[in-house]
Write a structure and sequence with these properties.
Layout lengths: L2 E8 L2 E8 L5 E5 L6 E4 L2 E6 L9 H11 L6 E6 L7 E5 L2 E7 L27 E6 L6 H21 L11 E7 L13 H24 L36 H13 L11
Parallel strand pairs: 5-6, 9-10
Antiparallel strand pairs: 1-2, 2-5, 3-4, 3-10, 7-8, 8-9
């Protein structure tokens, strides 16, 4: 994956764009504001915008950027207020992942109804963790969806291991690309051949990006600060009551130890300890 850095201007401020142009012959699945869904795509761009971004027509904005870059055909456009110049690229046995990571407002996916999120009030804000993945083999439609699930799970694992009590931010985006021609792979879960590679590549990219973000962040802007003492723990799981011996009889070793640690007091993203 050859990602080049290009530039655009917003309010006379020069801002970077990460651009990957694999050319024709690729199918992509994406949650992007432009070119989302699944279909043939020729390029992917991840453009940095100012933190106060207020345009309500992001798809039109991406189209303007594409014209300015001389791009042709259908593509995928992602926007972020994170530093695109800090893009992290990782490779695992033929799978490439590139991620921009900003964690100004990390959050859990499930929060109590009616909770306000500073990233979404008063209007939509550009995503702060944007990921694109290149897989060298064709994928079936189901495998594309499975790849998105796998990458999302790997992203959350990386954040937890970097010390963030969060599943992501409220407006993350993703794009997974694979060749259109050939016999498609039917599986991309984390224990399939290609899914495992997707998971490791995304995990490495997001973890590195999260660690870099923490090192660079202004303490007044980073909320909440990560807790390094909780790296590697399973966070945000509630067990209503400690399981008895019978319910744990099939567990042994580290798994049993982890279950015992989680049972009494693990915080829940839906509980009062979140502070949201």
């Amino acid at each position: 994956m050859h990602v080049e850095m290009r530039w655009h201007r917003q309010d006379e401020v020069p801002l970077p764009i990460a651009l990957w142009c694999p050319g024709p012959g690729y199918r992509m699945i994406s949650s992007g504001v432009a070119g989302g869904g699944i279909g043939l795509r020729k390029w992917v761009l991840n453009a940095q915008v100012l933190a106060g971004y207020s345009r309500m027509d992001p798809a039109a904005h991406v189209a303007e950027l594409a014209v300015g870059l001389g791009l042709e055909g259908n593509g995928v456009g992602l926007l972020t207020a994170a530093r695109v110049s800090d893009l992290v690229q990782c490779e695992d046995e033929g799978v490439y992942a590139a991620a921009t990571v900003g964690l100004r407002v990390p959050t859990w996916a499930a929060v109590p109804s009616g909770s306000a999120d500073r990233e979404l009030v008063p209007a939509w804000r550009p995503g702060t963790i944007n990921i694109f993945v290149s897989v060298p083999v064709p994928l079936s439609d189901a495998a594309y969806v499975n790849a998105v699930m796998t990458a999302t799970e790997a992203k959350t694992q990386a954040l937890l291991e970097a010390g963030y009590r969060a599943s992501g931010t409220a407006s993350d985006a993703i794009c997974v690309a694979a060749p259109a021609a050939g016999e498609p792979e039917d599986f991309a879960g984390p224990r399939s051949l290609w899914g495992a590679r997707i998971a490791r590549a995304v995990h490495s990219a997001v973890h590195a990006g999260a660690v870099r973000y923490t090192a660079q962040a202004d303490p007044a802007q980073a909320w909440p600060r990560p807790d390094p003492s909780r790296r590697g723990e399973a966070i945000g799981i509630r067990i209503a009551s400690p399981p008895g011996p019978a319910s744990r009889s099939h567990l042994s070793g580290p798994v049993a130890d982890a279950a015992a640690r989680l049972a009494p007091s693990a915080p829940s993203p839906l509980g009062p300890e979140t502070g949201r």
